[in-house]
Amino acid sequence: MSAQSHHEGHDHTHDHGERGSSQLSDIELRVRALETVLTQKGLVDPAALDAIVDLYETKIGPRNGARIVARAWVDAAFRARLLADATSAIAEMGFGGRQGEHMTAVENTPSRQHMVVCTLCSCYPWPVLGLPPVWYKSAAYRSRAVIDPRGVLADFGVTLPPGVEIRVWDSTAETRYLVIPMRPEGTDGWSEERLADLVTRDSMIGTGLARAPGAAS
Fold first, then answer.
1. Exactly one of 123, 138, 143, 217 is catalytic; which is it?
2. Residue 215 lies in a domain
3. 107 beta partners
4. Which of 96, 112, 72, 108 is nearest to 176 (CA)?
5. What's the pTM value of the predicted model, to 2 decimals?
6. Domain coverage including residue 63
7. Active-site residue 122, yes or no?
8. 217 has catalytic annotation
C-alpha cells in the first residue's frame, strides 16, 4: 500500500495578535533591538535570558504535554475524553489559557502518523508544548510539511514503513493540535511519571517518535 499525505487546511484568522511571516520578522527585530539596548545598559544578562527561553521552550512547556500523553497511555477513560474534547481534558490537568483555547488531540497508530504545521505563521499550543521551536516557524518547514511530509520526517531521523499514511494538520488561531505518539513497547506497568520521560516535544508535533525505554534523554 502506498503512503498517502493529507493536508487538513483551515482559514487562518489571526485575531490573537500573531502576524504573517514578514510582519513577525519585524517584531522579532524589534525584540532583538530591545534586548541589545537592555544588555548594553547592563539590565539583562544574555546568558540568563537564553537559559529562561530554553527552559520554557524545551522543559516546562513540553513537560506539560508529556504528562498529558502519559495519562492518555495509562488511562483509557482520559484518553477517550482527550480525543473527544481535548480542551476540556487538558483543563482537567490544570493546563490551558491563551494559545491553547481550542485544542484537538490526534493519535498516532501503526498505520497512521500525524504531523502538525502552521502554514501561515506559527500557531502553536503554548500551554502544553511551551514556546515553538525555531524550525517550526521557518518557511521551509511550513511549506515542506505539506508537500513532502515523508521527506521532512526523514530530516528528523524518522523513517516510516511505506504503508503508513501521513496526515498533516494545519494549526490555526481557532484550532491547535496535540499529537499523541504511540506508546513504546516494553513499558507495561510503568508509572505516568516514568512514561512522561519518554515523550518528546517533537513526538507531540509529529516530527518525532516517543523514546524507547533505555534511550538517552
1. 123
2. no
3. 180
4. 96
5. 0.76
6. 5-36+43-205
7. yes
8. no
